[in-house]
């Protein structure tokens, strides 16, 4: 059976993730409502703006269902703001900023700097045979990882790609460009 992978479609790089999934053997769907989330075997939380995304998730009554599905073992891939949304702890967050949680990391918002400090670079990612092109846009980095978290890639001395069980997160945007290897790595978690 073909797994269904949702992309949280409240704000951010939804279209780009749907396009990346389109080349893989999954059914890709946009998720805006709890019923759509219920139909998913895996979920991508895209890049965007983490405080806005959390507020919209609350408004669309998705925040608590997301937390329950993550706690129950739903495979989730968070990119940039999605990494922040999966983090258990956030530094430099907005007052009262909420997350989905589940990933035992402390993440620093906008760690690499402002929009003008955005950059691109080549990253070695554990499990991949050649470097990945990383696009960092007002990106977070991981300040601290828990004992169950595997660091897959680092930049500027900080983890920028991590995995914990069925959760995968990057501080960069793998949906930009044509390299779908990280999306494939995630769909393998969904199938596993």
Folded structure, characterized:
Pathway: Cofactor biosynthesis; pyridoxal 5'-phosphate biosynthesis. Its EC number is 4.3.3.6, 3.5.1.2. With 192 residues, the chain is of the alpha/beta class. It contains six helices and twelve strands. It has helices at 14-22, 34-38, 50-59, 63-71, 81-86, 181-191; strands at 4-8, 27-31, 42-45, 76-79, 87-91, 103-108, 119-123, 132-136, 141-145, 150-155, 158-164, 167-170. The strands form three sheets. The chain has a seven-stranded mixed beta sheet with strand order 2-1-3-4-12-11-10. A three-stranded mixed beta sheet has the order 5-6-9. Strands 7-8 form a two-stranded antiparallel ribbon. It is globular. The two termini are 13 Å apart.
Summarize the structure.
By secondary structure, the protein is an alpha/beta fold. 26% of the residues lie in helices and 32% in strands. The model has no long low-confidence stretch (mean pLDDT 93).
